[in-house]
From TrEMBL:
InterPro entries, per database record: DegT/StrS_aminotransferase (IPR000653), PyrdxlP-dep_Trfase (IPR015424), PyrdxlP-dep_Trfase_major (IPR015421)
Keywords attached to this entry: Aminotransferase, Pyridoxal phosphate, Transferase
Keyword Transferase: yes
Native organism taxonomy: Bacteria, Pseudomonadati, Pseudomonadota, Gammaproteobacteria, Methylococcales
Name of the protein in question: DegT/DnrJ/EryC1/StrS family aminotransferase
The family this protein is said to belong to: Belongs to the DegT/DnrJ/EryC1 family.
Coiled coil ranges: none
Record bears the keyword Transferase: yes
Any one GO molecular-function label of the UniProt entry: transaminase activity
Amino acid sequence: MMSKIFVTQPFLPPLEEFMPYLERIWQEKWLTNNGTFHRQLETKLADYLGVSQLSLFTNGTIALITALQALRITGEVITTPYTFVATAHSLIWNKNNPVFVDIDPTTFNIDPNKVEAAITPQTSAILAVHVYGTPCDTEKLQQIADVYGLKLIYDAAHAFGVRQNGNTVLNHGDLSILSFHATKVYNTFEGGAIVCNDEKLKQRIDYLKNFGFADEVTVMAPGINGKMNEFQAALGLLQLDYIDQCIAARQTLANRYRRAFKDLPGIRLLPSHTEREENYSYFPILIEEDYPISRNQLYSKLREQDIYARRYFYPLVSDFPMYRGLPSAAENNLQVAKQVSEQILCLPIYPDLSEESQLKIIHNIHKKKDWF
């Protein structure tokens, strides 16, 4: 009997390989506060990702909030409704006013053409998201930010290791924020990071994530406790040994899905790009009108077969009670995002997904109309 198939499952390296890390933590008794493994992981991650400055965090949400604090963001921030709720929640926690704009119908990222029209004298920043690891139109967004004197922040939770034309997407904008949650391509159970290109800004970020302490008696700012502990950092070091192998396994799965669905009526795939190194963090498909049943019906049918695909992202963030009263949350302002959210279905993709399980998923989506 096959077990349940979820949209993603964390990769866990062999336990015996983790034991030496645990033994060292026990010996040193240094559990947090910039320990040995924490320092090693910051250095190795920065090197692997091709960035100059990286600060580790206990999770991606605290990293997002700290990024806003570090850049002293106030007033309105233009962002996307097509994202995980933490993107917008971070703005609320920082007492910013989210302003939603529509998304590009091909990439599902924030539409730069809509951004400029939403700018007001109260706008201080743009918070964009590399959805499913697909890079935003970074050039156009930077042009807009420069013209209007805005800060540009990227929620890069899906974009670990993604490169475009040989360059990491993480060096765009003022800051990029990563998530190392258990569901991500690279995980530390929980965790995250802020990437920047300025040593002084990294120092401010490091103060903020440690209550604002510069030393035992000096507090530089009203910081928060956002530090990554040694257990998370140790797992992160071990995960780095496997990350290329994991991404390669995801690529094999993604390619099999593409071959299976490329000519299936009613199924639309996101385009692939030869100039980009992807991480295959998600495999989204759109269920269009000429598919035999609706997206929600297919979602339910798959669940009956113990296939737990996700309608990711549905509902839109702008549909939740704390946001839907905003003028920018009006449905006529977000027509593309609304349509995509009602058609999207993310299929299971993770390194340990067996070929047998994947073929079961493919078979169930290929079933003919009379079966439905």
